[in-house]
Write a structure and sequence with these properties.
Shape: globular
Order of helices and strands: EEHHHHH
Structural class: mainly alpha
Number of domains: 1
Oligomer: single chain
Length: 155
């Protein structure tokens, strides 16, 4: 499948683009030294297991699906994904340039509580439409609920 943006043609062969876009800030976070570790919070074991299982699912499932840009609601879906991703990236930029304080993980942005947990959840849930995947939708919802829950417990 080919996506054309202002004369530039981009070939998207699979949904692998979804986890790549989702993980870019996380990879940067792993490479940049932390300035404020914050206190260690005890998260219930079952939440950790379910969140990590959901995380693996949303990172692996897109590898088996193609993005269908010819669906009826593809444009609004792409706009929603772009907005969610923009909020996610702005939250990470705020974290990196705001002193990398652990408190910034939970700070609202544009009235959105915990945008570093909510925005990727919205991005992943919406992306399941372009993949026509009920499995991705389910995995995104499970990951999103547990990720937001763990984030809320960790604040």
């Amino acid at each position: 499948m080919t996506l054309t943006l202002g004369g530039l043609s981009i070939s998207i062969k699979s949904g692998a683009l979804i986890p790549v876009l989702f993980m870019i800030p996380n990879v940067v976070w792993m490479l940049v030294p932390k300035s404020d570790q914050g206190g260690q919070v005890s998260v219930p074991f079952f939440l950790t297991i379910v969140e990590n299982a959901g995380r693996v699912a949303v990172l692996v499932l897109p590898l088996f699906f193609s993005l269908d840009m010819n669906k009826e609601l593809s444009r609004p879906t792409l706009i929603g994904m772009g907005l969610a991703l923009a909020i996610y990236y702005v939250s990470w930029i705020r974290y990196f340039f705001g002193g990398r304080s652990a408190e910034l993980f939970g700070e609202p942005l544009l009235g959105i509580p915990m945008p570093m947990a909510v925005a990727p959840t919205v991005f992943l849930v919406i992306s399941s439409y372009l993949m026509s995947s009920w499995l991705m939708l389910g995995a995104s919802i499970v990951f999103g609920i547990t990720h937001i829950w763990v984030s809320a417990v960790s604040l």
